[in-house]
Each structure stands twice: as C-alpha cells, then as structure tokens.
Amino acid sequence: MKFKIHLMLGLLVLSAGCASTPDNITFSDEAEIRAVAGTAPAASPKRLEKADELKIEQQVFGYLLERHFWDLADYSAVFIQADDAQIKALIAKYPDHVPPVKPSSHAEVQPHLTPMDKDTKKPAMILSAEINEPNADGSVDAIGRWYAGDAVTGFRAVHLTKLNGDWQIAEVK
After folding, report:
1. How far apart (Å, rounded) are the C-alpha atoms in residues 127 and 147?
2. What is the rounded distance in angstroms from the CA atom of residue 73 to the CA atom of residue 109?
3. Rounded distance between C-alpha atoms, residue 59 and residue 101, angstroms
4. What is the pLDDT of residue 103?
5. Dihedral of CA 107/84/64/139: which sign?
6. Burial of 7 (C-beta count, 10 Å sphere; 0-12/13-18/19+)
7. Beta strands in 17-139 (DSSP E)
8. d(CA 9, CA 27)
9. How confident is the model at residue 147 (pLDDT cuts 50, 70, 90)?
10. Contact 103, 87 (CB under 8 A)
11. What average pLDDT score do residues 10-38 get?
12. Would you say 168 and 90 are in contact if contact means Cβ atoms under 8 Å apart?
C-alpha cells in the first residue's frame, strides 16, 4: 500500500516538473516584482488595444536601453524579448546602440548561465517587458526586466500615463 502511494506521489511530482517555456526567461524575483509594482487585480475590466501595448513596450524598452546596465561587463548584444515588429522598431530607433540591439532568436540561453550571442559566442543581456491591465484612472503599470544570468538580473516597475495620445513614463520604482 505504501509503495503505491509513494509511486503515485513520485509520478505526480515528475509530471508537474516537466512543463517549460523555452521562449521566455523565467525570473526568480517574481514575488518581489509584484510587491513593488502593486499588481493587484485591476479595478477596471478595460483592456489595452494592441497599438497601446506596443507604445508602452517602446517606452519601457527605451528606458531600459538608455540605462546602461551592461557598462560593467563586455556584452556583445542586447536581446529584446518581443514580437518582430517591436524589435525592428527598436533597432531602427537605436541603430548605433552599444552593444547592438538584436532579436532574441540570436540568443543562446541555458538555465543559470549568462545568455550567449550566437553570432559572436560572447555574453549578452536580455530585456523583456510585461504590461498590466489598465488602472481605474487609465494609467498602466509595467515591468521592465534585464537578465544576463542568475547573478545579473533585475527589474524596474514603471507607471505610465497617456498624454495627448502618447504614453509617457510618469514614475519608475
């Protein structure tokens, strides 16, 4: 009887640990991010339009790209975790960025290790953005993250408002 219970529990544990998402980096600071961003469920059921999501992502990625989290290391690329149109827009906006902005498809990522640039075989950094539902006042909270391995990871909680049709960063936490 004990053997059957242990066998069933073992199979349950094994099956729960088999899910993975190769497209996105999993960050270990999720609880801390939620606490800083105050991401309780939105009071308004209103959803953002895709165009607004893209504009907000542009603001978050622009903020991250201008902060130079990579200055203390020799990174060969900054990879952006976003759709192709967003990446192309960022590459066009930052054509001379050092290190260069590249799509995440050029990244070689292994758990707990610094991402590598497939083109140069050198260390790289990955940027991502997560947008929450609109707040009751129409503002939006987002999370901008950077990742270059377990020891070099972080985030900024960003509060954005819409002014004359354009999204602008109102506060960074």
Report:
1. 7
2. 18
3. 15
4. 86
5. negative
6. exposed
7. 78-81, 101-103, 107-108, 116-117, 125-131
8. 27
9. very high
10. yes
11. 47
12. no
What CA–CA distance (Å, rounded) separates 70 from 61?
14
Give percent of the chain with pLDDT exceeding 90: 59
* Cα–Cα separations (whole angstroms), residue 111 to 4, 117, 118, 158: 34, 15, 16, 27
Across the chain, mean pLDDT equals 80
Contact call for residues 60 and 36 (beta carbons, < 8 A): no
**For the residues 43-71, what does the mean pLDDT come to?**
85
> Does the global pTM surpass 0.85?
no
pLDDT given at position 27 = 54
Between CA 63 and CA 112 the distance in angstroms is 26
Report which of 117, 92, 94 is spatially closest to residue 107, judged by C-alpha positions. 117
Element (H, E) at 37: helix 30-37
What are the boundaries of each domain within the chain? 29-172
